[in-house]
Each structure stands twice: as C-alpha cells, then as structure tokens.
Amino acid sequence: MTDSLTGIVQISIAAVLIQNFVLARFLGLCPFFGVSKKLSSATGMGMAVVFVMTVASMITWWINKAILIDMGVEYLRTIVFILVIASLVQLLEMVLQKFTPALYDSLGIYLPLITTNCAILGVAIINTGINVFSGTGYSFVESTVNGAASGIGFTLALVLMAGLRERLELADIPKSLDGLPIAFITAGLMALAFLGFSGLSFFK
Amino acid sequence: MGDLFLPVMVVGGVGLFFGLGLAIASKTLKVFIDPNISRVQEILPNANCGACGLPGCAAFAKAVVEGRAQPGGCIPGGEKVAVNIGDILGVSAAAADPMKAVVHCRGGKREAMDRSIYKGIEDCHAATFTGNGSKVCPDGCLGLGSCVKACLFDAITVNENGLAVVDRDKCCGCGKCVAACPRNVISLIPSVHKVFLACSNHDKGRLVRRYCTVGCTACTVCAKATLSGAITIENNLPVLDYGTEEIFIIAHAKCPAKCYMDLVKGRPKANIDTKCVGCGRCAEVCPMKNVISGAPGQRHVIDKDKCIGCGNCINNCSARAISMWGGLGYDAVDMRNKRQRNTSTG
Lengths: 204, 346
Description:
Chain A is mainly α. Chain A is 69% helix and 0% strand.
C-alpha cells in the first residue's frame, strides 16, 4: 500500500511539473495558445481538460485491457481511442447539460474544443505504456491519477500563460512581435523554466 | 481472412456500441431548448457589450425568451432589434429611449494647462496612477484613449487637441466607455438632447480660471437663466436634469466660460413676418438681450446674428407671426420635439 501511495505521489508530481503536458511534452499546444488570452476562460478550459482527461483515462484503460490486449489488436490503439474519446466527450456534454446545467454553463463551451485534443489522446496512450517509477504497466488507479494530474499540469501551464498574456496586453511590445509571436517566445521561456523541474529525481 | 476479420470487428464493434450509446443518450438525455433563443440571438448585434445588464448576447436572448428581460433591452440594437424580437415572440415591443455617450470636457491641449509631461503607457488608468495625469485639472479628459479601446463600435476617437470625441452615428449607448474612463468624464444622455455640459471640474471658479480657459467656474448663470429649474449647482458644477422638457439651449448661449456644447451645427433662427401686430410679447420672453427690437404697434425685427433659436417667442406670439427659418443640420424630428416641448412648458 505504501508503495502504491508513493507511486501515486510520484506520478502526480511528474505529470504536473516534470513531464508537464504543455511545457515538457509539447502536447495540447493548440488550446494553450488559443484559450490563454483571458484568465477566466483559461481556468474554465483547464477544468474541462482535467475532467475529460480523468474520465478518458479511466475508460481507455479499461478498453485497452479488456478489448485491445485480450484480443491482441494493440495496433488499433490510436483509432479506437480517438473513437472512444470523441464519443465520450459528446456523451459527457449531454449528461452535463441534462443533470448539472450549472457545470455545463461553465465548462460547456470548452468541451467540444477538446473532443479530439492531442493531450487527451496523449494521456490515454501514455497510460498504456510503462510506468517509469514501478517499471510495470499503469494500474487502473495509477492511470486515473496520471490523467487527473496531467490535466492539472495542463491547467497550471494554461493559467500561468493567461496571467502572463493579460499583462503582456499592457506592455510596450514592438509591433512585429505583438500578439502571438510574443506568446510563442513567452511559452518557450516558460518551457525552459520548467526544464528546471527535471532536476527533481524520483528514480531510485 | 482471420487477420482482417478481428480488427474490423473490434473497431466496428466499438464504433457501433458508442454510436448506439450516443443515439440512445441523445433521445433520453434531450434537453428542450426553445428554438426562439437561437432565432433571437441571430438578430442581436452579437457584440456582447453587456449594456443590457446580462453577460453577453446569448444570455440576453435566453432571458428575453424566458420573459426575464424586455425585448427593448438591447441598447445597441435599438428599435429595429426590439421590433424584430417582438415579431418572433409575438409581443409588441418598444425600444428603450436611446442613449448616447458624451464627453464632459472640452479643455484639450490648447485650452487646459499641463503641469507635467506624461511619457508612459498610453492608457488613462496608468496616467491616473502616476500623479493623477499630466493636467492641472483633476477631472479633465486625459486623451490617452482608454475609452477608445473600450468601445466595441469604434465610435470614439481622440482628436488632435487631445480630447475624446464620440461619433454619434456609431455610438450605441452601451456605456462601456463610461466604465472605462478613470476620470468619470464620459456619461450617457438621452439622444434627443443635443446640448450638454462639457466640463467635469469641481474646483472653485478662481482656481479653474487659472488653468483652463473653458472650465466651469460655477458662476450659476446657466442655472438662473434656465427658468424651468432643470439646472442645479452641486459641488461647484451644474447638474443637468435630462428627465425634464428643458433643452438647455439658453444655458449654452448664456454660459460666459463657454462650457456647454451644442451638437447641432446650425440652429434655426426666428423670423417675424408681416402679421406682426407689435404687441411686444416676444421681446418679453426672449432670453437674450437686444435680439428683438421694434416700437409698440410696429412690426418687430429679430437680429438673426444674435438669435439662439430657442423658440420661446413662437408660442408667446399673439398674432402667430413668428416661424423658425433655416437650420443647417437640424432635422425635422428634433424640430418637432422642440415645438412640443415648448408648447408644454408654455
């Protein structure tokens, strides 16, 4: 039990900081630049990503184990996962709209944006690989935690970026760099800063 | 064959399962959304200005269809949108009285004195933080364009004299600029009103005269000249009551510091025709000095250069001999409004 608890903490810290989805793995860059202009929408998008990533991790872990591995068709992983995630987001949207209109109002507009987001597919595929901390495959709990923590890492990067970009709006930036170019430069510098977290070592 | 069969079955099976699942879900989890909401949203300006008091056009469309908002609540949309919404919902709708933004300052670079040079972020808020702006006047327009940035309709520009100017045709009266101005120089007034006070300064008169040639000195001439009592002096600044019938043209003409602005390019002038019996009642009500002259019993004459076009004399004429002539840029609707006003005020 202690081992699995340590493993979960390791996975969480790795997913949030060391292997941050945006700034270290360079996945989900499209919403990272598209929805990072305002802090409020960045937070909403981040919450939606955490939500979908967690649920998608749970479902795809099960699909991977029960269907793909059992039937020996692991090479269909990508296409089946895309299918599953896309339908899952649609289904989630309907469920939210029906049962929790308040949550739908705050997350609803971001859900279609992440239907086939590469970060969601990325976490699903990472969960099928080898867990570097234990040396074995991800268990159900571990992949769920990995999904949630990756989503939190994405949210962290998105919210930091939105905060920076809101300040950049007021800064005196050369015209040729105004807008997206300066955002790209900022993202690069942030990625360099996050590189520092790779010094955190959990490998025994 | 077996190699092909399994993957097709897996992908097909998963696809079929989720497809059916979604199909069932779309039936059982269906949420009824009034189709009128999207129809109303289509005819709204979709600028999401928030002038209706709701967060965005989608929220307003929903509120209107559900009866929580009035069809005329969309201020930028005006009468046209109100009528269209009324058609969709099957109710009669009247637009709210359109409001227009006005800038209560005319002391630009030429008129108002600077006490420092501001070199920094081109933003009125930033300038206000750093020593309350470059002007001596604590309330004047800084001309750095925070309102220009806030305006969703490109209705505000900063002119070469460093003052914000509102384009009346583009202004929708949403009030974004009012909220964006750190000096509270901009406000909304009903669009039928063409005269407004172009000063926001609350300092005492002798102070104002030192640093602004067009600043209000709170001399109270306008309040005394406006007989309807629609102008009161509060905290060294006249307060205009736009809810009354008063059109404030007399205040504009009488103000010694020229603080009032008249948006009408050329007002019409009164003219006395040959029906005049020389009763002199017109001269009694004329607010200006030496405009109407003439001996009793003789046809009176109006000095066209001095006439301000207030129209007071028309309704007081016993022989119905006075009419308004000319009036460049003065449309018939305004004229009618003014006549009605003058009739009701006597």
